[in-house]
Design goal:
Strand content: 5-15%
Structural class: alpha/beta
Helix content: 10-25%
Distance between the termini: 71 Å
Oligomer: single chain
Low-confidence stretches: none
Number of helices: 3
Number of strands: 6
Strand order of the largest sheet: 1-3-5
Length: 146
């Protein structure tokens, strides 16, 4: 085999469409651009979000309040899941992941007061709701802010 005999594999390359080369090609005359209008003109483009002069969706939707784009959302855990641990155990994000209660804890853990706790456990989390802290302490456990 010589260099001049090399060719691409059959079907791996495509011949580009030749626009505006006569009506017989199916892409003649208007060259697939249709008749008139902004997109038929040379340089005729429409910017992103433009809706033909109609008030764009981004401006029609009400914008209220403040959304902190730098917020680091805490992973919420109910007090009821603490019953999965033994008395005297230390519960933190790693222990919850190990038990399969949560899948990941990217920015920290927050314990909220949904349910009841019966075990005496030491809970280490970034935040506690006031009633969750109260429930843990009533059961004889400790709520430590890490």
């Amino acid at each position: 085999m010589e260099l001049h005999e090399l060719a691409p594999v059959m079907g791996s390359t495509h011949v580009g469409k030749r626009k505006g080369r006569g009506t017989a090609t199916g892409n003649g005359k208007t060259a697939g651009r249709g008749h008139k209008g902004q997109k038929a003109r040379s340089g005729g483009k429409v910017r992103i979000g433009f809706e033909g002069g109609q008030m764009p969706l981004a401006r029609r939707i009400p914008k209220r309040g403040f959304n902190n784009i730098y917020a680091k959302p805490l992973t919420a855990v109910n007090v009821a899941v603490l019953n999965a641990f033994e008395d005297g155990a230390t519960v933190d994000a790693a222990a919850l992941i190990e038990k399969g209660i949560i899948h990941e804890c990217k920015y920290g853990l927050k314990v909220i007061a949904n349910g009841t706790v019966t075990k005496k456990v030491t809970v280490k989390a970034a935040a506690f709701s006031a009633s969750a802290k109260e429930k843990i302490e009533q059961a004889g456990g400790k709520a430590e802010v890490v």
